[in-house]
Amino acid sequence: MREKYVIIVAGGSGSRMNSDLPKQFLLLGNKPVLMHTIERFSASSSNPKIIVVLNESMRSYWEALCLNHNFAIPHTIIHGGKSRFQSVKNGLQEIFKIETNRLEEVGVAIHDAARPLISTKLIDECFLALREHSANIVAVQSTNSVRIGVPSKSESIDRDQVWIVQTPQTFNARLLNDAFMQPEHASFTDDASVVEKLGYPIHIIKGDHKNIKITFEDDLKIAQMYLQLLQT
Predict the structure, then answer these.
(1) Which family, according to UniProt (predicted)?
(2) With CB atoms 3.0 to 4.6 Å apart as the test, which of 115, 142, 169, 189 could cross-link to 159 if both were Cys?
(3) Could you report how far apart the first and last alpha carbons of the chain are, in Å?
(4) Helix, strand, or coil here: 137?
(5) pTM for the structure as a whole
């Protein structure tokens, strides 16, 4: 890849955190979650150009946070859409505008803002995987017994065949350009599912159980414990 980008999707709300403030702006340690996430990508050997997709209403709040925390890592802010699909598409359009004539040579990572503990090593593995695979996801195998069905009728499935998907997910930019020309569909639960709809295979990179997504209040406490361990 001649050029690398990461789209950090930060348009979520704080509904499941019992907070009026979206989770990516809550403090983890002494600074907002989103700053930790940006720092991880900036510190990686891949050092991708960083695009942050924000809800338009939160832009001024984020800019004030950056001033208050003396946060100066370069990043481009793009306004999000009404769904993740639309938000990612907005971020991609910024890349396509810059890299119009060489999309085949561009690698793009897409990452949840609320996964601030992603390791720089894993980030680099995801970009390196683009040398052999056009679509990559980070995932961990289930450690629990798994059943599929509804409460009244279910059946067990082999947990060794079950993967819990994380981010980042990395793709060739040309592939993403084709994939995000599709109409949005309810089956698009992540970016890999958009690409998969076109028939492309998805390569799995073994993830890290510490790469948690902060969704509920207890997740923030767990992330704080992991962060303290990383700093000791």
Answers:
(1) Belongs to the IspD/TarI cytidylyltransferase family. IspD subfamily.
(2) 142
(3) 35
(4) strand
(5) 0.94
